[in-house]
């Protein structure tokens, strides 16, 4: 498999749509990327997963030629992000976390403009705009100004703009951040359809569910480093086996339940309110055994489930922190930092 | 397609984008029509009686000055627009496209030329209604408009730099105002320089706005203007070159905040 290729310098592995070696980037004292290696085989989806401030957006900006790296090298579609930046730009599409569409243009005008800037020519740009509006179910809103669009419609238009030139490699930087669940699912389906047609996708997300659903391979990134990589299943296997969750009918029985279940657990069971959670070694017979053990000590059961670990569990076990909680405070801090003290009162 | 033709094409696409925006934003329409009209009427009827301009009616003295002031501010749309593009992530999109690196900026400043032409036409029409008259020949008048539009174009580039540097669209607008507002008043735009205290006269005399206004006044109503038209055009050229370079350099490194 291409992903197993040694990350030597030249020649570039043609099977890899995106390849990055030892990418480094700092903003002053703040290290955004501390040596990141990435390899995305053509036609696959890599999910870059991590909290805000982990370095995901910086990686995307380097790979889309918006930022020069301080160190290391990267190629996209076989082209170097620094030396071949100009040629590279016609082979990629970028949909950022901002829904970068012009509010004061209509949906059609936005796509036509992007098509012209990809230098498709007037007729081709218009034809492509109509086609994409149709595909993204925006035809009825094509002549409306984007400022009247909902958040979900803007994201669809933004994604459509990224697809105008039919690029072989697509970068999606937190494509569903801030969307309601229904719009999010819609966007996922669109991305999946695109991947089915052979497009390579590099996707950043802080939603574990999103990486789980879309990505063939996941790279967990934290503080500028890739701390784990593999398929969603491989990452989950790393965290260990199944999770047994037992909800008791009486909160006072928790200690007795923990004591009774301990012999069948991989690690010490964790109790929270009336719920006891424990990783179990074997899936088969686990529920029956738990029911029997609790019955012996006369603890009543309200609910009992066996589930595979989620990526939340993965992130927690890799970093010792919960992924999403930390994100908001870090984001605010970095946004605050980025704002320059230049406010001037109007005359 | 040659690279130059492609760059021109990109510029036209983005100029069109900037112009499409204007009729869709009522506040901008007001800025280009009502505001210049208001300025003409206020100055002619409110200050006109109090300001002495020996040998000339105040309305004749005023019109060149107020037109130059208006085109000097015309570029604020560019400053605001670029600051908005930065805020909304559009600059990231444009920079990821295989388009020319300068097209977003040349497109916007070119759109400013179009809106400046429109504002100037509105003001001349209102000026003629309240008594302004050209007293020179067609060639001089056309040359005067050339000087005005070149000056407006140069200031659009100053505003482009402000827009890419400011922290928000709002601060872009007020920064631009703070930079240009005093310049327009410490000049010969609204009052004869001789009426100012002598230390201020020194500043006003070297102010490019004074030079431009004096040139336009000479070309429109026949006041003596020496080499002012040439010096004004050199100022416009110099400002354009310096700020175009600064702005494009800034744009290449601009990243959404």
Describe the fold and architecture.
The complex is a heterodimer of chains A (about 350) and B (about 260). With about 350 residues, chain A is an alpha/beta fold. Chain A has 12 helices and 14 strands. In chain A, the strands form 3 sheets. Chain A has a 6-stranded mixed beta sheet with strand order 6-7-8-3-9-10, with helices on both faces. Chain A has a 4-stranded antiparallel beta sheet with strand order 2-1-4-5. In chain A, strand 7, helix 6 and strand 8 form a beta-alpha-beta unit. In chain A, helix 3 packs across helix 4. Chain A is elongated, with a radius of gyration of 24 Å. Chain B has about 260 residues and is mostly helical. Chain B has one domain. In chain B, helix 8 crosses helix 9 and helix 8 runs parallel beside helix 12. The mean pLDDT of chain B is about 90.
Going by helix content, strand content and strand pairing, the class of chain B is mainly alpha
Q: What distance lies between the first and last C-alpha atoms of chain A, to the nearest angstrom?
A: 64 Å
Report the largest inter-chain contact. Answer: A-B, 39 and 35 residues
Tell me the name of the CATH homologous superfamily of the largest domain in chain A: P-loop containing nucleotide triphosphate hydrolases
H-E order of chain A: EEEHEEHEHHHEHEHEEHEHEEHEHH
Overall domain count of chain A = 2
The secondary-structure element order of chain B is: HHHHHHHHHHHH
Radius of gyration of chain A: 24 Å
- In the predicted model, the low-confidence regions of chain A spanning at least 5 consecutive residues are 1-12, 325-347
- What number is the mean pLDDT of chain B? 91
